[in-house]
Structure formats: structure tokens, C-alpha cells
TrEMBL record:
Entry-linked CDD domains: Thr-synth_2 (cd01560)
Name of the protein in its database record: Threonine synthase
Catalysed reaction, written as an equation: O-phospho-L-homoserine + H2O = L-threonine + phosphate
Domain of life: Bacteria
Keyword match Cell wall biogenesis/degradation: no
Enzyme class at the top of the EC tree: lyase
Amino acid sequence: MEYVSTRGQAPVLDFEGVTLAGLASDGGLYVPRAWPSFTADEIAAMRGLPYAELAARVMAPFVGESLSPDRLLELTREAYGRFAHQAVTPLFQLDQQNWLLELFHGPTLAFKDVALQLLGLLFEEFLGRRKDTGADGALTIVGATSGDTGSAAIDAIAGREGVEIFMLHPLGRVSDVQRRQMTTVLAPNVHNIAIDGSFDDAQATVKRMFGDPEMTGRFRLSAVNSINWARLMAQVVYYFAAALQLGGPDRKVAFSVPTGNFGDVFAGYVAARMGLPIERLIVATNVNDILHRALSAGDYSAGTVTPTAAPSMDIQVSSNFERLLFDLGGRDGMAMAEQMRGFETSKSMRLTNAQQQGAASLFTSARVEPSEMTATMRWAHEECGETIDPHTAIGLHAAMASDLSADVPVVTLATAHPAKFRDSVERATGQRPPLPARVGDLFTREERYAELPGTYEAVRDYIAEHATPSA
């Protein structure tokens, strides 16, 4: 399996290479040179597999020769052995048509654990391999989070040999539970940075750092955000898991995905390209609706981020959207690079006809207002006995408002445990969800983080001072 950059100028890498690289050197994102696919019979043969075995089966074509099948299975069993539910990503039925795919049973109570528990093991595997051969194994991870990526990545990386992590989050714009899940991890290889700005500011800083020769020359940088292909690959698995339980591949299934950075729903697109019969992918946004405007009207124009009760969706620049545009636009790296340069200069871009038409064949989108989000949280609680978080409510509202045929099951991705957003849930339902026992002492733990201005220079200098040079 070979990986190419969406902008066409970075070196072609294997799976180990893209895992350690994260962002491509030309500013693009890595994707497989060609999509692997399964036949209907091969997909049907996956029914009933334990989650770790299903994960190894689905991911094997992407891994190629970087890991043996036996070693990949060992890693998936270790990664998903820490989850609080034996099914790892269980389905919960709400009514005749609507289901929730519970992705929050990992150690930090969010869907990011499904990918990042594995990614931490992959980093350790590949770095250890390089160290054994005399190559420099030091790795500096730099990431930005709107809430859940940070805690999941830190949990996966804390204490691992040869790797350190610097995680940026927007000061005051994540929930208290999200913040504490990051800032109470006091391992020496973990560095939390709160910046005075938005998630988009933090993400722009990270992307700029990967293109800064001064930093890339001194440090071996890598990423844990969904710009890292290995993380996105791991998220493909739960689309297969849900569809198989609901009759796939003999029956089509639709998915509604609360979306910010587009990685989670792009994983659904990858599953479809691999042969999984998906009726529709519903891209559910809040009032920060750049993706809804792009998919419904071809207008990918960034506005000002509006803080909401669903902070993980408070994004105006969705990095992974570039992967979709590249694939739908004929995989022309030069054209993609030009299109993205225009967007990065003007913060405005029109999708081409090919991109719009290609997206319309699988995707629809919805913008969900705060009142609709709250009403959906209340409905799930009162009518179904299920407490859901604000992000899941946005996805569920979009699912219930869709025009899908009644015989098509619709799976909403439940991306976070409701206890991560206790204030919002309590306002909507009158009930304050308790923290699960495994994180019940969160508010008694010591916090540690740095507060910095939201400028590239401030963050760069801090990391340069605290990170371990690669040579």
C-alpha cells in the first residue's frame, strides 16, 4: 500500500511512513494511492467477528507490509481491551428507524479513543523498530483540539517511550471535563497549552509548524489529529461494525455524523469506497456551518467561529474536507494545491462541478439550531430513556429530519459520553449526568498547563524550549 499527498508534491510513503509523518511535507494530507475494496461475500464473512478481529480485517489492506496480520491483531486486541463495553462500539435502538452507535466507551469517553488507543500503540511499535535499527526514534507530536482529540491523544501517548506530545486547546472554549481530562495528566512527556484564540487558530498554528523548516529541521514532528491517516483508518471500522449488525451488506444503512473537522464522516466515505453499501452520509453541523454550505451550495467560505454548547463542532476550517475534494476532483494534486492556496489566501472557495456532483451522490447535510439540539436531547431522554450529549443530539436531529425511506436504518454516531457536557445536558433534561466511576475523581486531580497568546511565534518558541531535538 502506497500513500500520496493530496497536493501531489510530497514523497510517496508506506503505512509506517504516513503514520509517523502525519501531515505531508507539501501541506497536503496523505491518502491511499488507490482504495482497497471488499466483495459482498468478503464483507458478509466478517459478520459476528469480535471488534478487534473485525478491525484487523478491515485495516489490513491499508497497513500493507508494515505489520504482519498477526501483529496487527495483537495491537487491535490491546487497543480495544481498555474499553468499558465488550462490544467496544455497541448499537442502541431509539425507535423503529433510528439507532445510536455508542463510540464513548473508551478511557476518555469520546469517539477519538477508538482511533487514538491504536495510534499510540502504532507510534510505539514503529519508533521502537527504528530505534532497534539505530535510527533516531525521537518523535514530537504537536496537535490542536476542540475538546476530545486532546484528552484521547494524551491518554494514548502518556508515558510512552521516545515520544512527547504538545496539545493546543482554545482557552475557555472546551468543557470543564474535556479540559481536566487533558490537564490532569502529569506525565513528563505531556505538555498542555491553552491559547487565547479559537480551535481554528490552534489548528492553523499546528499546520504552519509542519511547514516551518526551522522546526522540522530541529524536531521530528508528527500529528494525532485526523490529518494523520492511521487515525482516520481506524475510524472506518465502526461503520462496518454497525452495518453488519443491521443487515449489511445485503441491506443498505445510512449514517448521521455530527461533524467538525470532517474526519469522522470521511471515514464513512472510505468505508463506502471499500464496498460497504451505505445509503447516505448525513453531515450534521451546528451554526458553524461551513460544511453544510459547501455540500448544499458549493460555498466553502470560512466565517467567524461562534462558540456553542457543542464545542467540538465550533470549527470553520475542516481539514479533512481536502481529502474528499481531492478524491472527487480526479485526484489531481496540482489542481488541489492551487484550489487550497486560493482558500488559504481568501478564506473562500467554490467547489468545482465535479466535486459538487460527486459529493451529492452520497452526502447530504444539515445545519441544526441550538433550540433544535436542545429539543432532541429532551426527546431522547423523555421518549427513549437515553441521555445524549449536545454533539450526538445535533447528529440525531439531522437524522430524524432527513427524507430517507422508512425501511433504511439510520445510525447516528454518538460521539461523546453525556457526562463530558454536564451543564448542557442538565439544562436540556433537568438531569445532571454523573461521571463514570473510572473517571470519577477527575475534579480532585491536580491540573497543569501553560497559557499562551494565540500567535504562531508564542507557541513555536514554547515548543522549541520544551521539546527534545531529534538529533
